[in-house]
Amino acid sequence: MASGVFRNVTASEPCPVCGGTDWCSWFPKRDGDGYLLSCKRACRDGYGNSDVAGKDGRMYRFISEKNNQYIYGERRSDRGNPMAGGRKPKKGPRHVGKVKPASDEPLDCVYRTILKNLHLEDRHREYLHGEGWSDSMIERSLIKSFPENDYARENGYSPKGYGPTNPTRRELAKTVLEELGISSLKGVPGAYLKETGNGKGYWTFSGASGLLLPIYNHKGDVFRLRIRLDYMGIRKCRLENGVPAFTEGDKTYCLDMSGPYRNNNGTKERVKLDDFTGKIRPFQSFYADPAMLSQGIIKNTYKYGCESKNHVSCYRKNEDYTDICLITEGEKKGQYANFRLNIPVYSLPGVNSYGLLFEEDENGKTPLGYMPNGKKTIFVVAFDADKHTNRTVMSYQEALVGKLKENGYMAATADWDVSLGKGIDDLLCRGYIPEFSLR
């Protein structure tokens, strides 16, 4: 059982997730072993809401996030705790009323029904066009717009003339239940039962608004969804010259798919506001009750909701050339690369979640093991080009290359000049291809 309050990390006891010596904290157990970690750099460093390989080499499981505080716990109970000099913790946090996600096939049915009943709003289509997506690619991708939550819509958070045209979340859930002939969405990450004052309730969906991105397994099932935020619904907006804008204090901020900015003589001057951090969120109905979490108990505040966790997505078409497989970070990026290169692509939720590629399923196979050519496949790691200046990204690339070779796979890396684009999708959009180096 945990007790007390979160303790700050120090130079002698750094955060095992990001390696920082300040800002982050950990929660001690009564016997002195810390097993809950609060990493506040996670989202800023690009791996918020993701199971991660920590700087200490251990894997940490994402538990909860709110107000830019990311809570992690050790993923394997037999691993020693870094805050306890390698001693094995007696037990980890205790779950109360945990709902297990349904298996992939029924989730595929539910998620495809959700996506069928949503459409891509004009502003999101324009954004994808600007990212190099053709209409045919968009239609094939199944990417749709996910609207602001019903409260935000009812209370005018969307500027008039720029609001969502999709059904409300409550209407969407009702349609899914009716079309599938079921009475419950229990076990569907993203869905939960919203209680009403009369003791009854109705099914609806949680999460931020934005682009709803499908996550595929090796069979092509849509077994999870992810959200690429559009940041609508966070603050009440108005339209200024056709652009969403909001006022905070005496300052006016504009808003686009990259977040808030100030218009400085026609130039977008990006600003950092605490509630606009990060770009990607898992589609899940899970948030751990803070009061119970402080006691070492994980209880979901969403009734009958469940967490998504993080997964590798496999983007692959029947006509793909399968001797080479790309590994990158980010679902939108991965699907775009698959369309352009016509080779299978594995997409990671974060660069330091590469360990997911080597986790065995109920059949004893890893995601990599499902490639048609097996260990004859060349796996090309294509992390962003800023890895040459970002030591963190480079360290995870090298760790992944080493892990691939250790497991008997052929490994290569993809490189290009950052001036041609940061991500593999930026590069391909500009008509270039990376240089491949066998390792």
Outline the structure in words.
This protein has nine helices and 25 strands. It is of the alpha+beta class and 439 residues long. It folds into three domains: 7-92, no CATH class; 104-237 and 272-299, DNA primase DNAg catalytic core, N-terminal domain; 313-438, Oxidized Rhodanese, domain 1. Strand 2 (25-28) and strand 3 form a beta hairpin. The model is unreliable at 29-34 and 76-90 (pLDDT under 50).
Brief summary of the model shown:
By secondary structure, the protein is α+β, with helices and mostly antiparallel strands. It has helices spanning 104-116, 122-130, 135-141, 150-154, 169-180, 290-293, 331-341, 391-406, 424-429, and strands at residues 7-8, 25-28, 34-39, 52-53, 59-66, 69-74, 94-96, 144-146, 191-195, 201-205, 210-216, 222-229, 238-240, 243-248, 251-256, 259-264, 267-270, 280-282, 297-299, 313-315, 324-329, 345-348, 378-381, 410-415, 435-438. It has 3 domains: 7-92, no CATH class; 104-237 and 272-299, DNA primase DNAg catalytic core, N-terminal domain; 313-438, 3-Layer(aba) Sandwich (Oxidized Rhodanese, domain 1).
Helix and strand topology:
Layout: E1 7-8, E2 25-28, E3 34-39, E4 52-53, E5 59-66, E6 69-74, E7 94-96, H1 104-116, H2 122-130, H3 135-141, E8 144-146, H4 150-154, H5 169-180, E9 191-195, E10 201-205, E11 210-216, E12 222-229, E13 238-240, E14 243-248, E15 251-256, E16 259-264, E17 267-270, E18 280-282, H6 290-293, E19 297-299, E20 313-315, E21 324-329, H7 331-341, E22 345-348, E23 378-381, H8 391-406, E24 410-415, H9 424-429, E25 435-438
